[in-house]
Amino acid sequence: MKRTLLAAALALSFSGAAHAAGEAKNIIFFLGDGMGPSTITAARIYKVGEDGSLTMDTLPRTARIKTFSHDAQTTDSAPSMAAYMTGVKMNNEVISMSPETVATNPGRDANGNLGINNCAANNGSNAVTILELAKAKGKAVGAITTTELTHATPAATFSHICNRNAQYAIAAQLVPGGAGFNPALADGVDVLMGGGRNHFTPYAAGTNPAGRADGRNLLNELAAKGYTVAATKAEMNAAPAGKKFIGLYSSKSHLEYELDRTATPPLGEGANQPSLAEMTVKAMDLLAQDADGYFLMVEGGRIDHALHGTNAKRALTDTIAFDDAIKAALDKARATDPTLANTLVVVTADHDHTLAFNGYGKRGNPILDINRGYRDNQPARDADGNTYTTLVFGNGPNRPNVRTSVDSATALADNYLQETGVRLSSETHGGGDVKLFATGAGARSFKGTLDNTKVFTLLKSAFGL
Amino acid sequence: MKLHLSLIAALCLAGSAHAGADLDLKVAHYSRIVTPEGVTREARFSETMLRRANHVWTARVLPPGQASHRHENDGSSGMKKVAARQGTAHKHFNHVVLPRHLSLDNGQPRLEFVDAQEKQVIAIPAGEYDNVGFDGSWEHAYYLLDPKRLKAMPVTARASAVPGARWREREQNGLFERVLWDDRREVPLVIESGDKAATFYNRVELTVMKGVTPERPWLDTKGYARREYADFLD
Question: Are B234 and A152 a contacting pair at CB < 8 A?
């Protein structure tokens, strides 16, 4: 009897609370695109030295993640992010669809752009995303990135399509009530940020040559649905609470690399672009208006691009900018939720790259520099007597026909491209496991070596879904 | 004194943005290195180059019948047989096999690659220049050397078989540089560098073709998709 009463009392106390013990009201999911273990280590050394810690290093729960896709040992960002978001393994280039979905390239529109979506109606079915589940539960949802908003990683949170390159169709999935809208988003994603306005605005010869061939202006359509539309950091900062928000901070393509955004003067459109940390804090401000909580995905998307280009310096500075966003999010969340009892923060990567940490470098030797031996601090040399850098890549474009010594000034320059083993026109992803870090409500379950689809299960469980 | 004045005139021209004659060129690259283990490694490749006012068009000369690079339905020949994007499963951008168009727009270089196979022009923002092997210098592309560096190289007595062309040379710390510079056409005919111990040697040899073709291939891109380097990063 006593036991029965006690059990009943416990049950009542749980059901009376807004959230069960260990259950997250909010989830912030950080995705460092291509941010493999070597990239994290190199970024750590670059910023705080061998014995320092990045913010992500300080998160108490860790796991390793298997990243293979349905059809490939080495995944691309579409199925790997989709596995996190849906719990389903799918083919490379597929965005949040069932496993059998065949990636079918989009076709050319009248302007030569990839504006024709060739995904057949019977080519797979939608796989429900954690963002959609959160929305259905009444939470506010957001996706922010340093890439185009329609790029694979953010797209995997809010869209379903058989090929990641159909970016004009992905954009259309965001517009409530419009042709091609994804109805699982209900009244729409609450906060969206990234680059690539051209996928949302009409084609215009000369001024918007990569624009939409269907003539639609999705930003006008979103504004008509109550969105604040921003194109700059200033407009983002001025955006009022209580309204949905879309901020696209580049006319086309991705946001600038952090190294270029903060250069003097900033490159490209960098002068008007916010940092990822600034975007994250603003997104949290907007989403926190919802009393039911929120789901926010934050992508450091250009880490991957710099790695493809074998430009380690930009990869490391973008990794640090990503880590700064994690710190900003933790500080902001703890301001109202000191123990993170209501907020789960997960940090991971979608796949590795072929970045390798090379030679027996002396502790304290700059990570981007040529390798210097730990015994004598003298330049290490290859079998032909040439110096080499500590960071190299397994494959990529910079494989000289005849290798020569690299000098320190060259290796440390912003634009230096690390040398590669196998010569390919572009460096590939790597198939190795990646790291995951977690803290806050529901973080305890992130441990061991997990398949990427298991992360979805744990996110869902943390939300009490 | 006369010689001195003409040299100054020539070098002034070399330092300007596009002072040289319009030329059709074949550019042959050769490099050789002898390793401490006694292995000699050599590499050769050639390019065609159209040098025009405000435009430099460069295309790698590729071996015919590159089966592994050819699209199955491609009936064209030569350069067009090589696809920059191979297969449909994964996209690639191999700038090495695509014609490169560098232009000067209000004093600023603009770089793009033309993929006739895929009917697309791939623009390269300044921040991505290194990824496609461009150092950002219009002059280096136009003259195939650094005109300021050329200025510092004295004319030597080495015999030249080409009328109007003279050797300029410099030697320092066991390293040498030599340029056979054609003063009239404002173009290097030979660029050599290496070390006296012969452990490495580089040579670029330019052949000036007869006449100037009227074609401007960079204009032949009507209806091509406009893409960017970053579009090929996944």
Answer: yes
